[in-house]
Design goal:
Number of strands of chain A: 0
Radius of gyration of chain C: 22 Å
Helix content of chain C: 25-40%
Number of helices of chain C: 4
Number of strands of chain C: 6
Largest sheet of chain A: none
Oligomer: heterotrimer
CATH topology of the largest domain in chain C: OB fold (Dihydrolipoamide Acetyltransferase, E2P)
Shape of chain C: elongated
Chains: A mainly alpha (53), B mainly alpha (247), C alpha+beta (143)
Helix content of chain A: over 70%
Structural class of chain A: mainly alpha
Order of helices and strands of chain A: HH
Distance between the termini of chain A: 64 Å
Chain lengths: 53, 247, 143
């Protein structure tokens, strides 16, 4: 299998690679959201504990 | 039995501990399935006799559609547990699932459109299958909107639960839409588990990808549930202890 | 499970049953509207006006595809194995368009029962297999 064949995907390359790219993008977005949320929650907690104790 | 569940899953504190033990396993399982499914699906599965290499979109389309529906089923079950048993962990699971489910539904629709254009000749058609999946996306949006406008936690959980339960009626409609009505979308490939209408070396990467998508959902679900758990339990001693250990 | 929980659970189940019945009745009543296309048999029985835009679905009859000299105009027959309707179309055909393949066409039915399509979409089935296997099985691509 040559690189050209892999890219062209029998003429469907644009469709196949776009579909896979969007999938990876959505996975990345979900992971990013979860991690960003964790940071925010930690900040909230730290703030809360500094207020109470 | 119930006691064992409570010890590991139902109480928020226990769930926090269990999930932290489960996460590495889930991440490993996801990585293995995803790596195999991606490589085998893109490069080793043979091209289809009719669609050539274009059929490889199946390895992202079918898993995202399957996961989108599975997540809604999880939400509905969580909704029942929330409503009937007032299980806090179920309420958290339900609201976190909604946004993940919306993403997977979006993915199913977009990859479907990208597949439809070269094969059918159109990005979109208002047939029963495509329309019912679009309704699923709107159900997710509706759930998220509903929960975001209710300030009180308990009413938010209950309203969400009712909406999740009512919307579950859409799942059989999506599944059977291609059987009950004539549509442009083809029938289900995997509904007959005994004899799937797909060749084995094309089937294995598909099953791996479905597993990978479900594991990914589980990973994101647990990560985000943990955030919600510590927020809800902010006033308890155990959260304070966990946080002081962490930092 | 205490009594209150049991009562709630029963209420939830009743809600689901009632919903299913309601949804089932609505969908049954709307059956014709939800169907995407007419089969040739249904279309020949239906009363349509030549100006009405409708969808016709079925299989492309074997040996019925004829291209005009210009190359863009195509004639073919759509069949459900009971009745046939001749279709004429001017435009780009999808990649999967071939003999024996299912198609969904949009257009109008003339008074002479000729279907003039302005869109042809290919419908594929849920079977996937490698080319070698399709050949080995001597499985005709045409059903």
């Amino acid at each position: 299998m040559h690189l050209n064949e892999i890219i062209s995907m029998g003429g469907y390359g644009l469709y196949v690679w776009t579909a896979y790219s969007i999938t990876l993008l959505v996975f990345g977005m979900n992971l990013f959201t979860a991690i960003r949320e964790k940071k925010r929650v930690k900040k909230t907690l730290r703030h809360y504990f500094s207020q109470t104790s | 039995m119930l006691h064992w569940f409570n010890q590991h899953f139902i109480s928020l504190k226990a769930f926090y501990a269990t999930s932290s033990a489960l996460l590495p396993w889930l991440i490993t399982a996801f990585s293995l399935c995803f790596a195999y499914g991606l490589i085998a699906g893109l490069f080793f599965a043979p091209a289809d006799y009719q669609q050539g290499d274009g059929f490889r979109i199946i390895y992202v389309h079918v898993p995202s559609a399957f996961t989108a529906m599975a997540i809604y089923a999880v939400m509905a079950v969580s909704g029942i547990l929330t409503l009937v048993f007032r299980m806090k962990i179920a309420a958290i699971c339900m609201s976190v699932s909604a946004s993940i489910g919306a993403w997977f539904t979006f993915l199913a629709l977009v990859t479907g459109a990208i597949w439809g254009k070269p094969m059918w000749g159109t990005w979109w058609i208002w047939d029963a299958r495509l329309t019912s999946v679009l309704i699923l996306l709107f159900l997710y949006f509706g759930f998220i909107a509903l929960q975001s406008v209710i300030p009180d936690q308990q009413s938010r959980d209950r309203a969400g639960a009712i909406m999740a339960i009512v919307g579950v009626i859409n799942l059989p409609i999506i599944h059977y839409s291609v059987i009950w009505w004539n549509t442009l979308h083809q029938g289900p490939t995997l509904s007959k588990l005994a004899a799937p209408s797909i060749a084995p070396d094309m089937l294995h990467p598909l099953l791996a990808m479905i597993a990978a998508f479900l594991f990914f959902y589980a990973v994101i679900l647990l990560l985000r549930m943990r955030n919600q758990i510590v927020l809800r339990e902010i006033k308890t001693q155990w959260v304070k202890e966990v946080m002081s250990h962490a930092s | 499970m205490n009594r209150k929980q049991k009562r709630k659970l029963i209420a939830v189940m009743c809600l689901l049953v009632a919903l299913s019945i309601a949804a089932g009745l609505i969908l049954y009543a709307l059956k014709q509207n939800i169907n995407l296309f007419y089969t040739p048999t249904e279309l020949l029985q239906a009363t349509t006006t030549p100006k009405q835009t409708i969808r016709l679905g079925g299989y492309v009859k074997k040996g019925s595809i004829h291209y005009d000299a210009s190359g863009t105009h195509v004639h073919f027959t759509v069949t459900d194995r009971t009745h046939d309707i001749d279709v004429s179309f001017d435009g780009v055909l999808p990649n999967l368009f071939r003999e024996g393949q299912a198609v969904v066409t949009t257009g109008n039915l003339t008074a002479e029962k000729q279907f003039e399509a302005h869109e042809v979409l290919a419908k594929h089935d849920e079977k996937y297999m490698p080319r070698s296997l399709a050949k080995d099985l001597q499985k005709p691509i045409v059903r």
